[in-house]
Design goal:
mainly alpha; 11 helices; 2% strand; rod-shaped
């Protein structure tokens, strides 16, 4: 029971105006999950295609194993050594398989070009492969930064904002419906009380529709026992249950209606 009460309090706290922005962020994230899934699918597809391309361009040739012969490329001091070209060795280390190539491509997208020893793969490739690599690298980064990332961000933001606007419209209609619903139920209570006051014998019958106004009961005064009898009416109890008000024990509601304790309710 205590856990349920804590959950209910948490829900009420989330609905408060203070945490409205946080609630919108959480709802927006949930709304954006389908778009995020397709973004992930597109991203993995692009990584696979570019990883495969970079594997063919920068990866080792069949039978090539310079790392086992020359050691780790970070330990090479002479960058002009033709027997152990550093750019080929880095190609073996970071583009040796399609999986490694995809991961290195992802690192390039995020601007991470460092090796285990803190050296730059891009600098080594630029010195080894020359203008061809530099042109490809610049074009690739422009496409990724100004194209792919912006498109992904725009799609995700657009779907999230559209979903939040749709939710706001639904909440607005729900509030309007709730206001009309509560007003209608209160009108039914007024009509039923008016009927019971005019004809107490109609207690066990359902009231017919009348155009009573809320002001119709302004000059009527009830004793506590009369109010208990009215609240015990089957029709009144059904209406109050529709409003989520438990009226099985009318005596418990006396303090609500008779706040000053005079024994009379107007």
């Amino acid at each position: 029971v205590l856990r349920v009460c804590r959950v209910v309090r948490l829900i009420k706290l989330v609905r408060s105006p203070i945490l409205q922005d946080l609630a919108n962020m959480l709802v927006g994230f949930v709304i954006g999950i389908p778009s995020l899934f397709w973004v992930l699918f597109l991203f993995v597809f692009i990584l696979y295609m570019m990883g495969l391309l970079f594997r063919l361009m920068f990866g080792p040739a069949p039978g090539q194993d310079l790392i086992s012969v020359c050691g780790a490329p970070d330990d090479i001091v002479d960058l002009d050594n033709t027997d152990c070209p550093v750019h080929y060795m880095y190609g073996e280390e970071f583009f040796g398989t399609v999986e490694k190539s995809m991961f290195t491509t992802f690192r390039f997208m995020l601007g991470d070009y460092s090796t285990r020893g803190g050296k730059s793969v891009v600098v080594a490739f630029s010195q080894g492969f020359g203008k061809g690599f530099e042109t490809l690298f610049v074009a690739w980064m422009i496409v990724v930064i100004f194209g792919l990332f912006n498109i992904i961000t725009a799609i995700f933001v657009d779907s999230t904002i559209s979903g939040l606007k749709h939710n706001d419209i639904k909440r607005k209609f729900a509030r309007q419906y709730e206001s009309k619903y509560v007003k209608g139920k209160l009108q039914e209570i007024v009509e039923r009380i008016q009927e019971l006051h005019q004809n107490p014998r109609s207690r066990d019958t359902h009231s017919m529709h009348r155009e009573w106004k809320f002001e119709a009961l302004a000059d009527i005064e009830f004793q506590d026992n009369e109010l208990i009898s009215i609240l015990g009416d089957d029709r009144i109890q059904d209406i109050m249950l529709d409003l989520d008000i438990e009226a099985a024990h009318p005596e418990a509601l006396l303090d609500t209606f008779d706040g000053d304790g005079t024994g009379k309710v107007t």
